[in-house]
Design a protein that fits this description.
By secondary structure, the protein is of the alpha/beta class. It is built from nine helices and eight strands. Helices cover 34% and strands 20% of the residues.
């Protein structure tokens, strides 16, 4: 059955939680947002923000609900926080989550061939690394015995206010005297040299052999947490490496503007739907 995604449609959704991975310290949960309609839906995995140290799968619930209601199987996952395990643990969780979603998608009328990912802030950082390094042995370290041949390649990635250069964000936090953000970076990147290895911008600049799926970056004009100038540098580097990337700046928007209802939030969600629709259409057979 071919996937047909019409972002103008509206469906009832069913929402529930399942355990997707058991870490020695706790169960990592996934929240499923399933459209209640016939058909095969594109599938999207969401990774939350929180400066690697806070939040969980519920952080982006309002956007996840609206995307699911348009006909997307959305699965939002917990990842280990920095106090539980530093980099690359959360990236390994997300890589596992992508493979797990591919294995489970058809149970919830989702298409494993269209799995994309959505990440916000530090979740955007995690998704950028997953998208570009899907086969990195550090990220693939968690085994999925029921589907050992599945990989974590993504059809596309959508990142909202991503920390595309963690070191630049750290320097900005010091400039703004935001002690919590400074501490969060130091807890996550331990040893500290990992801030350069687990750095999407530096990864591109080093000329590594990377996967470069289509990407959409959404950035607030007034974001003083992740600066637009830093984001623009990432977009330029991604294009220079041969990747297709859309970039949109939202006037008057700060770092977490999508957490609040408003015209810019509505516009962001509409643009994400349109981007996903283009990626789904591009994968459909001609004729």
């Amino acid at each position: 059955m071919a996937v047909v995604y019409d972002p103008s449609k509206q469906h009832e959704i069913k929402v529930w939680d399942v355990e997707y991975r058991r870490d020695p310290a706790r169960a990592l949960m996934a929240r499923i947002y399933q459209p209640q309609a016939a058909g095969l839906f594109p599938a999207l995995m969401d990774v939350h923000g929180g400066a690697w140290n806070e939040q969980d799968r519920t952080a982006n619930a309002s956007m996840d609900e609206r995307l699911a209601a348009s006909g997307i199987l959305v699965v939002a996952i917990d990842v280990r926080l920095a106090r539980e395990a530093p980099y690359p643990a959360s990236v390994a969780d997300a890589n596992y989550g992508i493979r797990w979603l591919k294995a489970k998608a058809r149970e919830w009328n989702g298409d494993p061939e269209t799995v994309g990912a959505l990440g916000s802030s530090s979740g955007g950082h995690v998704i950028e690394l997953c998208a570009m390094r899907p086969h990195d042995s550090r990220y693939t370290a968690l085994q999925l015995p029921e589907a050992p041949r599945l990989d974590a390649t993504l059809t596309y990635a959508v990142v909202r206010s991503p920390i595309s250069d963690p070191f630049a964000r750290y320097e900005q936090a010091k400039k703004m005297k935001r002690e919590n953000l400074i501490k969060n970076s130091e807890i996550y990147f331990n040893p500290w040299e990992n801030i350069f290895d687990g750095n999407p911008q530096r990864t591109l600049e080093r000329g590594e052999a990377l996967a470069l799926p289509p990407m959409f970056v959404l950035q607030g004009e007034l974001d003083d947490n992740v600066l637009p100038t830093v984001q623009e540098k990432f977009v330029v580097a991604y294009r220079a490496a041969g990747g297709e990337i859309d970039y949109e700046v939202f006037p008057g928007a700060e770092h977490r503007w999508v957490a609040k209802p408003g015209p810019q939030t509505d516009r962001a969600i509409d643009m994400i739907k349109a981007f996903i629709a283009r990626q789904v259409r591009a994968r459909q057979p001609l004729g």
